[in-house]
Design goal:
360 residues, alpha/beta, 10-stranded mixed β-sheet, two-stranded parallel sheet, 12 helices, 19% strand, binds S-adenosyl-L-homocysteine, binds iron/sulfur cluster
């Protein structure tokens, strides 16, 4: 089966030509796919029935199969998709009062970076996603929104996986989000754990796409304990690459700081961070930890967060606390997959116990 979402307009026209169809049909189909964003071939009402039948027989609209879905009290929608080879990945849709509709999408099944507090890091690396698999996660949300008269407006590459460990496919998806889904570069954010060579490469792309770097600690010892990748790319190199990025792009960048009570939320850490980032055109997003089964830490309590932000402001470093969306549905990176896999394991254990019971 040919995935229609995996074809360029040119390739689609070639395919149709090889079927003896007029090339203008490609543009018609393209409009259904990406402007009208329909979810089925049957909705493509200006195509002859024979063409629709052939499309049904030989093509698919995407390769992701919905395996689980949860909606949070705050409207956050979390999905678990099964890929063609059985791998599981997550995507999240966040709705804001100001009409923003933000999709958080995955770039890998699992992740090789091993950050200790991250559910995805705890499950290890399975494989890279293709550009199409990354792009389709956003497209599926765009389709559903379109059906109720809304538009997908923002994308963050902050789901499972490290986008810069899968650089080409992630950039291919980003380019298609811009060209095919019409999402402005400034409404797309790529988040990286800090792969220095790729930050340099990204700076040279000359895109207006936003960059976020997950920092989480301001000394090498503390950062290496949380993010093993820091041993390969220490803070001095990372911050230097960030300075170069800001200079080249002229853009303000973001640092992510997951606040873990008693670990990286102390006044001392805040002062060290302030010194590290002073003078850099940036913004710090502080996010209380989303607790995961494989890590002992907990989220910082109220007062400590405000104190942390206040110290940063002494250094002229702007910081905002981000609300944890979908906390009641485990919408943190990798958490739904962990839950579903755990449930499946529990289920199979129960089945075995039942079988033993029956034998006794
Ligand atoms: N690999 C990329 C993007 C995916 S992770 C990166 O690390 O930047 C997206 C963000 O979620 C990162 O800032 C990551 O540190 C953060 N994160 C991971 N696990 C978390 C948790 N349990 N609670 C809060 N934030 C978490
Ligand atoms: Fe990978 Fe990002 Fe999780 Fe670290 S925080 S393990 S880089 S997904």
């Amino acid at each position: 089966m040919i995935d229609l979402y995996n074809l360029t307009l040119e390739q689609l026209a070639d395919l149709l030509a090889s079927w003896g169809e007029a090339r203008f049909r490609a543009k018609q189909i393209w409009t259904w796919l990406y402007d009208k964003r329909v979810a089925s071939l049957d909705a493509m009402s200006n195509l002859p029935k024979s063409l629709r039948e052939r499309l049904h027989a030989e093509t698919t609209l995407g390769t992701l199969t919905l395996a689980a879905e949860q909606e949070s009290a705050d409207g956050t929608l979390k999905r678990l998709y099964q890929l063609a080879d059985g791998q599981l990945i997550e995507s999240v849709l966040m709705e804001y009062d100001d009409d923003r509709r933000t999709a958080c999408i995955s770039t890998q099944a699992g992740c090789a970076m091993g950050c200790v507090f991250c559910a995805t890091g705890q499950m290890g690396f399975s494989r890279h996603l293709t550009g199409s698999e990354i792009f389709e996660q956003a497209l599926y949300f765009a389709r559903d929104l379109e059906a109720r008269g809304e538009r997908l407006s923002n994308i963050v590459l902050m789901g499972m996986g490290e986008p810069f460990h899968n650089y080409e496919a992630s950039l291919e998806a980003v380019r298609r989000l811009m060209s095919d889904l019409g999402i402005g570069a400034r409404h797309i954010t790529v988040s990286t754990v800090g792969l220095v060579p790729m930050i340099k490469r990204f700076a040279d792309e000359g895109l207006q796409v936003k960059l976020a770097v997950s920092l989480h600690a301001a000394t090498d010892d503390e950062r290496s304990a949380l993010l093993p990748v820091n041993r390969r790319y220490p803070l001095s190199e990372l911050i230097q690459a960030c300075r170069e990025y800001v200079e080249k792009s002229g853009r303000r960048m973001t640092f992510e700081w997951t606040l873990i009570q008693g670990e990286n939320d102390t006044p001392e850490q805040a002062h060290t961070l302030g010194q590290l980032l002073r003078g850099l055109k940036c913004h710090v997003n502080v996010i209380p930890l989303n607790p995961t089964g494989g890590y002992h830490g907990g989220p910082s309590a109220g007062g400590r967060i405000e104190a942390f932000i206040a110290i940063l402001s002494e250094y002229g470093v702007p910081a905002t606390m981000r609300i944890r969306r979908g906390i009641d549905i485990a919408a943190g990176c990798g958490q739904l997959k962990s839950e579903v896999v755990k449930r499946q394991r529990v289920k199979s254990v129960t089945v075995v116990e039942d079988a033993q019971d029956a034998e006794q």
